[in-house]
Specification:
The complex is a heterodimer of chains A (207) and B (636). Chain A is α/β, with parallel strands linked by helices. Chain A has helices at residues 23-30, 41-44, 52-60, 78-87, 129-132, 134-142, 165-180, 186-190, 199-202, and strands spanning 8-12, 36-40, 64-70, 105-111, 146-147, 151-153. The chains are: A alpha/beta (207), B mainly alpha (636). At the A-B interface, loops of A face loops of B.
Chain lengths: 207, 636
């Protein structure tokens, strides 16, 4: 794992990518890495006819799966749900013979409109982002994948105006390169609410 | 008669050999014609004195060229580029004329001669530059647009200069030429205004111009519509020629420049639906006549004069290009052109042009320039045109590489600036495509060979033009060289395939979307090179099938899934069917093998549609298949 690069599959889901201020720049920043495959789901399946074979093949060819999306109603945009419903088939992702995803790693890179303090028991959203994404966490567990907490940007509507985006993108590139090089401390990460709570704890320095 | 045939053959033969060769070498057709002229004239002596007579006739090509320049210019776009046109173009002409006139004065020439020399040398070569810009795909760049503005201003300025020339005549030369002409057999020219009082003269001229504008606007269109309805192409060509020649005749009759008249007529007709058809019809005549003109110029080059004055001519040519380049560079800085655009303008226009030849011969006819000087200048003008391709090579090899690094960051802004979409055929199918594109703010050019259809579209403010889109020249006139997409929806199978083939061969990067009538036609279109092919009735039929299933009580969502399964199964088999069709020799008919494949497809479709959906995990219909009963035991 140390010597060989991890292949990363980023499934990007933004139904209005032209208006995106956070996710689209994040996607652009992910380009130019040989180990990374970028899939624009709304671009590839504008009619929602997701090709199950093609998507399963992609999963087989990668070690780390990333959902990249803006948070819609405490969940993913609908095409990512459609993707899960169709691609994570019995006999492929679960069931006695469904072991295709075993040993892979899964996490989300998302933007959320609310401020971070809203995503707490005392905040108006009542749950942390990690808690809200529990269906995905459990899906990862059932399909045999290691789950990492989300890489999240809060207060996304004002991030550009407040100059928070460039730092976020720099963090993302740092994380992505560490993921490719297998320098993620999975156990330490599992204790966090978001990966970017404490990136330096999650990322091991280069050997 | 025999002599005419032989002569015509020599001219055409020289052009046919030299022009393609020159283009192959990247030198441009103008140089090809010039070289051809040099070869048949001074070098081999195949043609002789008659070149002068032919040259006068060939000058009509310039009149046609100005008609075409006018056609390119809707009054609106003329208005939009007014700053560059007047500022950049006007300053270029004024400064360059002043520079050359000043040099001439210093060289001891009289002021009228100096002014004439300045004006003649200030012009650049529209033919060479526009063609080179087009070939290199630089027409839409800042530098290309600026060059076009300058050239256009020059082309328009030729008209007043032609009017000005006779006023600069040298008395002593005038006397000589009059002495000559009185001796010759001189017949009175036709004129409407000869012997009229000044006010009547003015009234006739105003009436003629007004008649031209009003007639061009209101009379020409019904006339063209009437001619187009006959469906005879040669009659339309005849009508187009009649228009141009008629206007030239009218202008000559009232003592105005024919070039000015046809330019005006061109502008008046620029917004007409017949614009592209007119362009396509007049273009070959203009091309041939201008070509003939260049040949006669080449043939007229006096090698004795060149040999006697080799040093002077070479120095003058170098000086000419240097001065023009300096003026252009100053203007490029003044108008804030950056990087390669700046150098494109500077080097691209640093030659004298074909209108210089026209003015030179006109000036010596009207006794403005002494014969010896105009011969020398003709050599300088010709030589500077010969050298222009060298400057473009310099631009490509030396200057562009220097700027490519810095330019790349700026290039991102220009991605959105793609060319227009050409829609061939604006019937039931093309209309919907066009409406959607226009609603999205895309610039479209619509072509149809039924003038009635075009008339209807024009009433709805759709930019549409009459013409047969399968004609190469018309596509060219409609701007296929700059277009980003070609949508083919014409109501003629064979022509649609020919059109795809032609467009693919000549424009390998163009994206071609074609409407197919049926499966076989679709294969033909694909074989011809179309990128996207849609059968006209396929999707509506599919929709109807879905409605039928729903009518039978199938759940709407299931019916939708079945439609998709149908399409996907068919797409998966389509490649095999196409390959089978492709390899059949028998006139592309559907053969036994193809029929077998088709039957197999039908069976697959039936399988996809009728399969037992209760407990399947593979096959065509697999989405949302529930896991088997008792699957939860796996997790215990």
């Amino acid at each position: 794992m140390e010597s060989q690069q991890n292949r990363v599959l980023i499934l990007y889901a933004h139904p209005s990518s032209a208006r995106s201020e956070v996710n689209s720049p994040l996607l652009q920043a992910s380009r130019g890495r040989e180990a990374v495959t970028l899939v624009d789901l709304y671009g590839e399946y504008p009619d929602y006819r997701i090709s199950i074979d093609r998507e399963q093949q992609r999963l087989r060819e990668h070690d780390v799966i990333v959902f990249m999306f803006p948070l819609y109603w405490y969940s993913t945009p609908s095409i990512l749900k459609e993707w899960q419903d169709l691609v994570l088939e019995y006999g492929f992702a679960y069931g006695t013979e469904g072991t295709a995803l075993h040993g892979k790693t899964f996490f989300c890179a998302l933007s959320a409109g609310g401020a971070e303090k809203a995503y707490h028991a005392e905040g108006y959203n009542h749950f942390t982002i990690r808690e809200l994404l529990q269906p995905l966490e459990q899906t990862a567990r059932l399909t045999g994948m290691a789950y990492l907490p989300p890489f999240a940007l809060f207060g996304s509507r004002t991030a550009v105006d407040e100059g928070r985006l460039s730092g976020h993108i720099a963090d993302w590139e740092r994380l992505l390169d560490a993921v490719i090089e297998g320098r993620i401390d999975t156990d330490d990460a599992a204790t966090l609410s978001t990966l970017n709570d404490d990136l330096s704890r999650v990322i091991r320095s280069k050997a | 008669m025999t002599a005419y045939f032989v002569q015509a053959f020599i001219y055409l033969c020289a052009a046919v050999i030299a022009v393609p060769l020159a283009r192959k070498l990247g030198l441009g057709s103008v140089l090809g014609y010039l070289v051809a002229g040099v070869v048949i004239g001074p070098v081999t002596g195949l043609v002789g004195q008659e070149t002068v007579a032919i040259q006068h006739f060939a000058e009509f090509g310039v009149v046609m060229m100005l008609f075409l320049v006018g056609l390119e210019l809707e009054p609106r776009s003329l208005w939009q580029m007014r700053n560059r046109l007047l500022g950049l173009g006007g300053l270029q002409m004024a400064l360059t004329t002043a520079a050359f006139a000043g040099i001439s004065l210093l060289a001891g020439l009289g002021w009228t001669v100096a002014l004439a020399v300045g004006l003649i040398l200030s012009l650049s070569s529209t033919a060479i530059v526009l063609q080179t810009l087009g070939e290199k795909g630089l027409t839409k760049t800042e530098g290309g647009q600026s060059s076009f503005s300058v050239l256009l201003f020059q082309d328009i300025a030729v008209i007043p200069i032609l009017a000005l020339m006779p006023l600069l005549a040298l008395p002593e030369l005038l006397d000589q030429s009059q002495a000559l002409s009185t001796g010759a057999d001189h017949h009175e020219e036709l004129s409407l205004v000869a012997g009229l009082a000044p006010w009547a003269h003015a009234a006739v001229v105003v009436a003629a111009v007004a008649g031209l504008v009003v007639g061009g606007h209101f009379v020409s269109r019904p006339m063209f519509r009437y001619v187009a309805a006959s469906g005879l192409r040669e009659v339309f060509t005849a009508a187009a020629l009649m228009l141009v020649i008629g206007i030239a005749a009218l202008m000559s009759l009232v003592g105005l420049s024919p070039a000015l008249g046809t330019f005006l007529a061109g502008v008046v007709l620029a917004s007409s639906e017949f614009r592209h058809e007119l362009e396509a019809d007049i273009e070959p005549f203009k091309g041939l006549l201008l070509g003939l003109f260049f040949i006669t110029v080449g043939a007229g080059i006096n090698f004795n004069v060149l040999a006697d004055n080799l040093e002077t001519v070479l120095l003058a040519t170098g000086g000419l290009m240097l001065v023009k380049a300096i003026v252009l560079l100053l203007l490029a800085l003044l108008f804030k052109l950056q990087g390669t655009d700046r150098w494109l303008l500077t080097l691209g226009l640093a030659q004298a042009g074909e209108f210089g030849f026209v003015l030179l011969s006109y000036a010596s006819q009207h006794s403005v320039l002494p014969g010896h000087l105009s011969q020398l200048l003709a050599l300088v003008v010709g030589l500077s045109m010969f050298l222009t391709p060298v400057l473009f090579i310099l631009l490509d090899k030396v200057i562009v590489p220097r700027y490519t690094k810095t330019d790349q960051s700026a290039a991102y802004d220009e991605i959105g600036a793609s060319g227009p979409v050409i829609i061939a055929g604006i019937g039931r199918f093309g209309q919907i495509v066009n409406r959607m594109l226009v609603a999205h703010g895309v610039e479209t050019v619509v072509l149809d060979s039924q003038s009635g259809q075009i008339e209807n579209m024009r009433k709805l403010n759709v930019r549409s033009f009459f013409g047969d889109a399968s004609r190469a020249d018309l596509l060219h006139a409609a701007g296929i060289d700059e277009a980003s997409l070609l949508v083919i929806a014409i109501d003629d199978r064979g022509r649609a395939v020919d059109l795809v083939k032609h467009a693919r061969e000549n424009h390998p990067k163009l994206k071609i979307l074609a409407r197919a009538f049926d499966r076989g036609h679709g294969y033909e279109l694909r074989h011809a090179g179309a990128d996207v092919i849609l059968s006209e009735t396929y999707h509506s039929a599919l929709q109807m099938a879905g409605e039928a299933l729903r009518g039978l009580g199938v759940h709407p969502f299931t019916a939708e899934q079945m439609k998709y399964a149908f399409v996907e199964t068919e797409q998966a088999e389509n490649e095999k069917l196409y390959q089978s069709w492709l390899h059949e020799e028998e006139g592309r008919a559907f053969t036994q093998h193809y029929r077998e494949l088709f039957m197999k497809l039908e069976a697959l479709l039936a399988d996809a549609m009728q399969s037992d959906r209760t407990d399947r995990h593979s096959g065509a219909e697999r989405g949302w298949t529930p896991p088997p009963k008792g699957y939860t035991e796996d997790f215990q």
